[in-house]
Structures are given as structure tokens and as C-alpha cells.
Amino acid sequence: MRDHVMAVDIGTSSARAGVFDSRGRMLGKGEHLILMNRPRENHAEHSSEDIWSAVCRAVRAARAASGLPASAIGAIGFDATCSLVVRDRDGQPLTVSTSGEARFDTIVWLDHRALEEADFCTATGHAVLEHSGQFMSPEMEMPKLMWLKKNLPQSWARSGYFFDLADFMTWKCSGSLARSRCTLTAKWNYLAHRSAGWQADFLALIGLSDLRERGQLPEETVPVGSSVGTLTADAAEALGLNVDCQVAAGLIDAYAGALGALGGYAENPAGLERQLALIAGTSSCIVAFSRERKPSAGLWGPYFEAVYPNTWLVEAGQSATGALLDHIVRMHAAGGEPTAALHLAIVARIAELRAVEGEAFGARIHVLPDFHGNRSPMADPHAVGVISGLTLDASFDGLCRLYWRSCVGIALGIRHILEKMRGYGYVPDTLHVAGGHVKNAALMELYADVTGCTVVVPEMQEAVLLGTAMTASVACGLHGSLTSAGNAMCSGGSRRQPDPTRKAGYERDYRSFLAMYRHRAELEGMA
């Protein structure tokens, strides 16, 4: 019986795999690190072959841990970051690196080399921008492709395939050139709600008239939950599976997390609209669903059928959250390499110091967390971070104060986003948190107390893998739809209510937070 599925999540630093049954129970897990090349500021690159190798190791480890034979796996599904993979006409790696190394054929999602190209796209004012918050982020694929054509013309001339990373994985597994509706709609300015999804006039306007032909990009897309085919013999051997295993259409990692966290609400669309998924790790993404299109500025979307049929999705985010806390630890004199153990030690010491000092702990330190730009709601990739209130304190306790107030700044940024979303007609009252931040007690407390929302931590803390497993379960027929998969595989979670005694203090912090935005603008206006 093929009554289990394999889910693969490709993040910024590792590939993870999990084996799931039809009730959403994870029976085995594997993980393998992936490489990243940082040749210069704002440049970040992967090797897609290194990613494929990591995926194969993770999948084999997960199945071994589950104790199941390959014949039990009905489908494999992939989610991934929105990284851009470039291959030549023979399907071989093609360099995207200024170093010229062919193995680095993938521009990482967080790469900001295409800031100028993103600004150019925004300046066009084209109608596609109505579905990306009225601006273009350098994290989207079009600016990266424009950069490639302009700065590495030899690579452009030899290019034969362009993939979002999740689509690359399904191609590598099945040989199919089908592209997911999720990836193209969310990251390639493809308008799934129109009869012609690609907007040829926009591609011409930004100098990419040859994109579709050169990149083997089809006119139609494949809905989430569909199969693009079965494993090839080579892929099956590499993954330790077999050729009868279906390959599910891929999806963006944050949207997989939203599906895994919110899937149990899908049968009640009105209730679903009150739920938000906060997928928080290196960066943070807020995902919301709605039955109606709700135009907005500073939010990514609305995207039609990026996950559920006949449903719009909107995304907001912070480009550096976990990465910001790592940076704070690394740059402080009392810090060091930001290991998980060091983060836990800092959070534990914060709890001790707050028990003694109360609200006075670190209160004069204020942090604007825009160290890698402001994705939402300001839509300013050029934005910079600000810290106010530093002294000569270089002690470990001094690091804890700065770390705590950086956490406060991150949570205030989430509140800022939620207030903007409410202004556009969204009605969120519950945050379902998934990702690495669930292990950080300071952040989890703040997400409730600062936003005033109920915070839910899913019982299945691997919400991203679970969401991808749900798509695979539909692709192989274990479940008839994403809604029925959600009902069967989502298992609820624990709830945390905001502490009303802390509301006044965080209201003051929020006023300071908004004032810092004004003061930063004043300073930059003097330049």
C-alpha cells in the first residue's frame, strides 16, 4: 500500500525531509546542510547540484528512520525558497556568479544584487504591480533575471532553463517542465486569474521579451496538489524511492507552512480569513487567505490560487528576523558564533534579568529591525536598521538587553504589518506560528503581548513539512483535496493569550517605534 508520502523542505541553509502517514503523523526525518557562496555584499548563491545531493541524503535518512520500504511512498512533494536556478540548453549548471564558477547556478532568495533592476520595475507602474504591493522586491525573480542578462550576458546567451527552486526539484525528479501555479504567481509576476498569465507587454518593458522561450516557461501552470508525473529511474535510485512514486507540484516554503498551520480551517472560509500564518525563521512571512481580492500596497499579492483553488493569498514579511538576532549575537563583544545553545542561554538570562528589573530591563534601547531592508509594510528594500540607546556596556548582560530589545523590535514590526493589513480589509485575530521562532520563548511571548493576537503553536511543529506532505497526499490520491487533507492531517495546537498587564508598556514602545521611522526619514532627508 502506498499510504505514506515524503515531504521535502529546502530552506536557506539545509534540506529537510519527512515521511508522513495519511493522518499527518511524521514517522521519520532527515536533514542535510547546503552550501552558500557570498562573494560580495548583497550576493548569495547556491549550487543546485549541491542542493540535489542534500535532498537525496535527507530523503534517504528520513525513509530509513521511518522503517518503511520505498513501495510505501505514494508521492514526494517539495517546497523551497524562491531562489532562481539557471541551467544551459543541455540542462547543466550555468553560472550566476561574478566569480564565474559554473557550480554556482542559483541566486538565493535573500540576494539583493538586483536593487537597481527592482527599482526600474517599480518605476514602470505596470498593472502587474497591483499584485506585488505596488512595488517590486529584489527578492522576486524578474529583477534577478534582468541583472543576469545585463551583467552576465554570456550566461544569458547560453541559458536554456530558468526555474524557481521548487520547480527545479520537480523537473530533476520527473523530467517535467511543468511549473507550479504557486511559484509563478508569487514570484514571477504571472497573473493566474487572467486567461493569459504572462503579461508580454511587461516583459518587453523590462527587457525580457525572450524570457519564456529562453527559459522554457510554459503558458499554463499546475495547481498545488497536482502531480507533474512520476520519478525517473535516475531520480528514484538517487532518492532511494521507486519509479511509481508521484511527484507533486512544488510550492513556496512559507506557503507550505501556511497550509500546514491553517489547513484545518479551510472548510470554513470565513473562519480561515481570521487566521494568519507566521512562518518565522531566518526571515518571517505572514500569510493570509481571502475569498475576495483585496488590493494593497506594501504587501506581496494578492495572488490567485497560489495555494487553494478560487482563493486569494497575500504575504507580508520581514527580510531578516532570525538572521538579525544571529547578527546581534555575532557583532556584540560578549557574543560569538550564534549557535542554538547560545541563543537559549541568552533567552534564559533575559528571563532572569526581567524577573529582577521588570519593564525597566533594556527599556532605553530601541531597535528598528530593517537591517536587510523593509519588505512590509514600507516596501523599501533600501531601508536600514537603527539602534538607539547604546552604552559602553560590553558584558553578557549587555548583550541580553540588546537581544531582548531586538526581539521587541521584531514583534513591533509584526504589529505594524497587522495594522496595515487591517486597513486593507483583512481581519486577523489569531497568529499561528511555525518555524524556528517557536523555540525562542522571548519571541513567542512578544508575538502575543505586542500584537494583541492569540498565538497558536501547532501541535505538529514541522508545519512546513506537513503542508508539503498534504500536497503530496492529494497528488497520489490519499486525500481528494487540500481541504480534506487539512481536515485529516492537521492536529490543532496550544494557544497563548496576550497578557493585558503588558499592553501599556508595548503601546509606548510602538509609539517610539513609529517615531524612529520618522526620525530616520528626517536624517536621510538631510543627505
The biggest beta sheet reads: 7 strands, mixed
Structural class: alpha+beta
The helix count comes to: 18
Distance between the termini: 68 Å
Strand content: 15-25%
The multimeric state of the shown protein is single chain
Q: What is the C-alpha radius of gyration, as a whole number of Å?
A: 22 Å
Helix content: 25-40%
Average pLDDT rating: 97
Low confidence ranges: none
* Overall number of strands: 20
CA-based shape: globular
3D architecture notes:
The structure is a single chain. The termini are far apart. The strands form 4 sheets. Strands 1, 2, 3, 5, 9, 10 and 11 form a 7-stranded mixed beta sheet that branches. A 7-stranded mixed beta sheet has the order 14-15-13-12-18-19-20, with helices on both faces. A hairpin with a 7-residue loop joins strand 14 and strand 15. It is globular, with a radius of gyration of 22 Å. With 527 residues, it is α+β, with helices and mostly antiparallel strands. It has 18 helices and 20 strands. Helices cover 39% and strands 19% of the residues.
What is this structure, in a nutshell?
The protein is built from 18 helices and 20 strands. With 527 residues, it is of the alpha+beta class.
